[in-house]
């Protein structure tokens, strides 16, 4: 395959994902059909099926593209060290979601039925792996008071965050409640395993403790 063909494929994929975000913002996930998306993106319906498989494939690709950009943005920032990197990742997620709630709210409300961590499939697995790698660095640096199963903690942090996000997406809680509850849940999970000085910091960040 030539470089030109690859660039055209990448450009088509970006155009489709941009169009998907626009359709979802206007008509919700239920309004996102492959025919409507093809018309909006200026491509053949067959092209969508070839590249994404089905509508759920488009949604997963849309979320994955957002994660790609978040990782690029985080990598461009000065290193902040283990554990804080996980905080920064989740904070960056929330900033993205709050910037375009008309897009992300219906997406997360629809992903629950899919495979993988809370319906996010390989995208969820990527996030869990990112957090797990960060926690492993923290363990190597002696930041935890116990011998830690970093994979299990990473999955717990992600799953509980997504459960709260689902409640927001479905209208059960408002955005500020989601934010406060998510921050509390993350910091209490960290406080349960961090060494004393870092535990106090996590409790303070949670809003229920005083250093």
Automatic annotation (TrEMBL):
Signal peptide stretch: none
Tell me which residues make up the HTH tetR-type domain. Answer: 10-70
Which GO MF terms does the UniProt record name?
Answer: DNA-binding transcription factor activity; transcription cis-regulatory region binding
Start-end of DNA-binding region: 33-52
Gene3D superfamilies attached here?
Tetracycline Repressor, domain 2
Keywords associated with the record: DNA-binding, Transcription, Transcription regulation
Matching entries from InterPro entries are given as: Homeodomain-like_sf, HTH-type_TetR-like_transc_reg, HTH_TetR
Q: What is this protein called?
A: Putative TetR family transcriptional regulator
């Amino acid at each position: 395959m030539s470089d030109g063909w690859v660039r055209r494929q990448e450009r088509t994929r970006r155009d489709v994902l941009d169009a998907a975000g626009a359709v979802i913002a206007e008509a919700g996930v239920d309004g996102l059909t492959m025919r409507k998306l093809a018309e909006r993106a200026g491509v053949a319906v067959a092209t969508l099926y070839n590249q994404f498989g089905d509508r759920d494939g488009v949604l997963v690709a849309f979320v994955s593209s957002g994660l790609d950009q978040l990782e690029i943005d985080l990598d461009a920032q000065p290193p902040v060290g283990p554990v804080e990197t996980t905080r920064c990742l989740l904070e960056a997620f929330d900033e993205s979601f709050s910037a375009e709630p008309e897009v992300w709210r219906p997406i997360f409300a629809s992903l629950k039925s899919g495979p993988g961590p809370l319906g996010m499939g390989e995208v969820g697995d990527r996030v869990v792996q990112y957090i797990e790698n960060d926690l492993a660095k923290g363990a190597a640096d002696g930041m935890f008071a116990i011998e830690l199963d970093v994979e299990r903690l990473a999955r717990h942090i992600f799953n509980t965050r997504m459960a709260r996000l689902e409640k927001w997406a479905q209208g059960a809680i408002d955005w500020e409640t989601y934010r406060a509850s998510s921050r509390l849940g993350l910091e209490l999970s960290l406080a349960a395993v961090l060494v004393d000085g870092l535990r106090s910091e996590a409790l303070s960040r949670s809003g229920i403790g005083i250093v």
